[in-house]
Amino acid sequence: MKNIFTGSLIKILLHLLAWTVLLGIPLYFIKRWQVGEDFIWLYYINIIISGIIFYVNYLLLVPKFFFISKRRYYASVFILLAFLFVVSDKSNELVFRYMPDKNHIEMKNRFRDDNPAQDLSKPGGQHAGPPFREMHFFNYMTTSLFLVFISLGMRVLERHSQTEKLQKELEKEKLNSELALLKNQISPHFFFNTLNNIYSLIAINAEDSQKAVLRLSKLMRYLLYDSERGDTKLSNEIDFMHNYIDLMKLRMSNKISLNISFPDKYEDINIPPLIFIPFIENAFKHGISYREKSFIDINMTSTRDSIEFRCANSIVKSREEADSDRTGIGLENVTKRLNLLFPGKHDLKINKSESVFEVILHINFA
Questions:
Q1: Mean pLDDT value of segment 277-301
Q2: Angle at 125 between CA 122 and CA 127, to 5 degrees
Q3: pTM for the model
Q4: Which partner from 38, 78, 144, 180 sits 20 to 30 angstroms from 197, CA to CA?
C-alpha cells in the first residue's frame, strides 16, 4: 500500500512539474522578447484545450472504452476532438476580434479565405502562406492526435505494469501455497514414521531416542516458524537437511549405502527455504530397499554466488512403476518453483538410467 501511494505521489508531482513549465513559458517570452498579449491569449487557450484532450483521454476514454470496446473509444475520441476544435476555432476568432493590434487585423486579412492575394493562379497574385483556418486545423489535428497517442500509450503501459505487478503477486502467492503444500507433504507421513521409529528405539536405546526427539523438534520448529519468513540462512537449511537425514537413518538397514557431503566452510547467504529437501525426500521415498542393496549419494558445494547440489539414488525395480507418476508430479512442482524463484539463474538436470536416478541443481545468486 505504501508503494502505491508513493507511485501516485511521484506521478502527480511529475504532472505538476510539466504544467508549471508549460504555464511559465509565456512569462519567459514576455520578459525576453516583449511578446504581445495576443500570443499569450492564444497560447493559454491552446494549452488548456490540449490539457483537456490529454486528461479526458487519459483519465476517462481509455479506461472506460479502449480496454472494453475499441469502436466506442475511437468514436468518443472523434467526438471529443471535433467538439474541442470548434471551441478552439471560436476562441481564436474571439481573440482576433477583440485585440486592437493592427498586426492581428493585417494577419487575419492576409490569411482570410476570400483574400485574392492567396490565389497565386490569378495575375498579380502575391505570395502568401496557407489559409488561416486550414493552417489552424492542421496544427490542431497534429497536436491533438499526438496528445491522444501519448496519453493512450501512457495508460496502456500503466495497465501493463499493473497487470505484470498483479501477476507477480499471484505468482508469489502461488509460490507460498506450493511451499506450504510442500511442508504439508513432508510433515504428516514423515512424522508418523519417525514417531514409530522413536517409539521402537526407546526400548532399545533411550539416549539415542532422546536425540531423535530433539532432532524432530528442531525439524518441526524449522517447518513451522523459520521457513515462514520467506528467506533463510544457508546454514539453517543445511542443519534442517542434516536433521532430516539423521531421522531417516532410524529406519535404514545395513543394505543401504548412504553418502552425505555438505560444505564445512561456506558463505552463509540467504536462500528460499526447502529448496533441496524435495530431492532428498524423493530419494529416501523411492530409492531405498530393505531387501536388496541400494544407495543414496547427496553432495553440495557452495561459493559466494552459487550453489551446486547433487542427489543420486538407486532405482528399486519393485517401486519404479508404482511410484513413477507421483515422482514425476513432485519433480514438476519443484521445477515450477525454481522457475519462479530463480528465472534464468538456475540449471536443473535430471538424469535417469536403468539403475540410477540423479538430480543436479546449480543456482546462481549473482
A1: 87
A2: 135
A3: 0.54
A4: 180
